[in-house]
Amino acid sequence: MSSNSRIGLDHLGIEVPYDKFDTVIKTYTAIFAPLGIKEMFRFGGGDTGKSVVVGMGVPGKAFLWLTQASKDQIVDPRPAHIAITADTRAQINEFHELAMEEGLKCNGPPGLRVQSHPNYYGAYVFDQMGNNLEVPTLDYTRLGSLKRHAFLFSDTDSGIGINIDSRDLLPVINNHPVGFANRGSLPVSLRKLELQWELAKNQ
């Protein structure tokens, strides 16, 4: 596949209960404002006889579409996990603060999520429908600020451990931004691995 491929998630659609639609639109507009996300399109409603559909996003790209269910329609109660990337940690902090002002429930305050990556910073809230809204950022420029440059991989069953120098591991980080390490590329054949690291105090 070409490195210029545009394959990826294009947009997400959410069905909102009839009586919660206006509140949800108001809430999303408020809490995602720090990211520059706003209502871009609105269709239906009124005399059209069609459901109201609102497209939210940034200039040139509406990627979050919310559709108002009919009055007698039962909406799937299973919640979704929706993550929208931020540019800065300040935006994440503001997102969470605004969400609390809107009365949403915190599902994780702003902070590092080192279980995913030592520089994965995010915040989580539940919206009025129970959806888990996340705003994260992953700053690769901070990789050099790791305090310890040797990583311990250990088998949780046998207790066998092996130290791997960060020079072997950092290319794996850069090539696999979602996961901290590609276990298949590690020079060990252990079934269960745990990664431990220590962050610099200034993070």
What order do the helices and strands come in, and which of them pair?
Elements: E1 12-16, H1 21-31, E2 38-43, E3 53-58, E4 61-68, E5 81-83, H2 89-101, E6 105-112, E7 120-126, E8 132-138, E9 150-155, E10 161-165, H3 166-175, E11 193-196
Parallel strand pairs: 1-4, 5-8
Antiparallel strand pairs: 2-3, 3-4, 6-7, 7-8, 9-10, 9-11
Q: Can you give a write-up of this model?
A:
With 203 residues, the chain is α+β, with helices and mostly antiparallel strands. The protein is 17% helix and 32% strand. The strands form three sheets. It has a four-stranded mixed beta sheet, with helices on one face. Strands 5-8-7-6 form a four-stranded mixed beta sheet, covered by helices on one side. A three-stranded antiparallel beta sheet has the order 10-9-11. Strand 3 and strand 4 (61-68) form a beta hairpin. The chain is globular.
Name some characteristics of this structure.
203 residues; alpha+beta; 17% helix; disordered C terminus
Q: Beta fraction of the residues?
A: 25-35%
How many distinct helices?
Answer: 3
E-strand count: 11
Whole-Å distance between the termini? 36 Å
Stretches where pLDDT falls below 50 for ≥5 residues? 144-203
H and E order: EHEEEEHEEEEEHE
Radius of gyration: 21 Å
Strand order of the largest sheet: 1-4-3-2
